[in-house]
Amino acid sequence: RPNMLSWFSMIMMLFSVLGVPCVPFLTKLLHKKGTVMFGLAVAGIGCLMLYLMPTDAITGMMISRAITGYGYGVLMGILWAVITDPVEYADWKTGKRYTAIVMTLVGLGIKFSMIVGGTLPNMVLEATGYVANQAQNEATLTAIRAMTSLLPLGAVVMAMVVYGLFYHLNEEKIRQIQEEIAQRNAQSAAK
Prior knowledge:
Elements: H1 5-19, H2 23-52, H3 58-82, H4 84-94, H5 99-127, H6 138-166, H7 171-190
């Protein structure tokens, strides 16, 4: 139903905005890593719900988009608290602050994902025979469904695995790192 497309997008954006203010509460409750994992899990549940939803269940699709959006909002809210941790870690290991490099890499990552997110759907739609303003063939409908549910679900699952297994900078470790940096800097200043 073409008249629902703007609502489909707006619901996700609206609930992502609602997710951001929940981040301080979630961080107190779950800490940073737990908050990231929570946001990913919620977004993943929303994506899976969307995939499993019958194609005529408009209300269910909107609810699944709201859930996905809320999870993404939590992730966008916690992102800026998490990316400072590698800066502290690099300073601790090397004695140099790489804030600009880390922020640049985050910006490049966001830009790269925007390029992929803008290009890949067009390539898939073209390959499946999409024709604007026409009833779509089964291959195109399947591709649209996969790109709006399975593709983001796959990305969420990969992020959960990588972040869950390889990210070890918790609040306690960061406090220890900051204390050691402060002591090192104090000793350097005393010389």
